[in-house]
Amino acid sequence: LLNDMPIQRIAWSPDGTQLLVQAGSAVSRAHGIHRYDLRAGSMETLVKQRDTADYDWNSHPRFAPDGKSFFYDRRKFPGRNEAVSGRFTDRIVRRDLRTGTEQVVYEPTAKLQVWWPFEVSPDGTRLAVVESDQFVSPDFTVAITVVDLSTRGRTEVLRLAVRENVSSIAWTPDGKRLVFSKQPLNPKGTPTGDSEIVSVALASPQPVHLKLALPVMRDISISPSGRQLAFRAGHSRGLNLWVVEGLQRKPLVHNEPPATR
């Protein structure tokens, strides 16, 4: 249905009948956010990259808990040649699925982490936002903030060390904690050392580090019970799907034969 376009992000609807898919090629101007109806077997494009002199990158679709709307990040550049210049603005937009009406719900003054800019809280009232000046400064810093969608109030939860990148973030089902993966980078943006997974309580933001270190951990997903944590780890030639339950950790899926132990 997507004509072999690269897929970057997917999100399930709360009732399990639809998928939001971020897919396409920025080079061919075919990038966008699409909705796939599993019952009808049909797809429609909801947000399309505009064929104008300026340039936007629409990413990270996330359903609202009621399934009637979704959020996404709109990154706007003054021109196509400015895509790597750091001259861009981020807006988190909410789009009504029935009417197509859009509303900017958050206009950060800081830059967002484009690969995982935000996550919606389980009750839909807050956003966990990852702010990063990675593409502006080689010695960038990342801050995790929580935005109240009713008041637009912003609370900084945690600020990481220089060149520590947040590669994914998730809410626990009770909305009381955030769990994220982080990766140290060198000034050129290349990973150095293993990734870590960190948990932080919003009421008392003292980070707790999971005693597990693996190369390039990202794409965190927490089970509905809150008792299991899934993520992927490894490089393109050795990706594993992991699940953590209590202290028992094991890779569930390999794309290469497991090493003999």
Characterization of this structure:
With 261 residues, the protein is an all-beta fold. Helix content is 0%, strand content 49%. It is built from no helices and 20 strands. It has strands spanning 7-12, 18-23, 32-37, 42-48, 55-63, 69-77, 89-96, 102-106, 118-120, 126-132, 142-148, 154-159, 164-171, 177-184, 196-201, 208-209, 218-222, 228-233, 240-245, 248-254. The protein has a 4-stranded antiparallel beta sheet with strand order 1-2-3-4, with no helix packed on it. Strands 5-6-7-8 form a 4-stranded antiparallel beta sheet, with no helix packed on it. Strand 13 (164-171) and strand 14 (177-184) form a beta hairpin. The protein is globular. The N and C termini lie far apart (42 Å).
Can you summarize this structure?
It is built from no helices and 20 strands.
Radius of gyration: 18 Å
Number of helices: 0
Strand content: over 45%
Beginning-to-end CA distance, first to last residue: 42 Å
Topology (SSEs and partners):
Blueprint: E1 7-12, E2 18-23, E3 32-37, E4 42-48, E5 55-63, E6 69-77, E7 89-96, E8 102-106, E9 118-120, E10 126-132, E11 142-148, E12 154-159, E13 164-171, E14 177-184, E15 196-201, E16 208-209, E17 218-222, E18 228-233, E19 240-245, E20 248-254
Features:
single chain, 261 residues, mainly beta, 4-stranded antiparallel beta sheet, globular
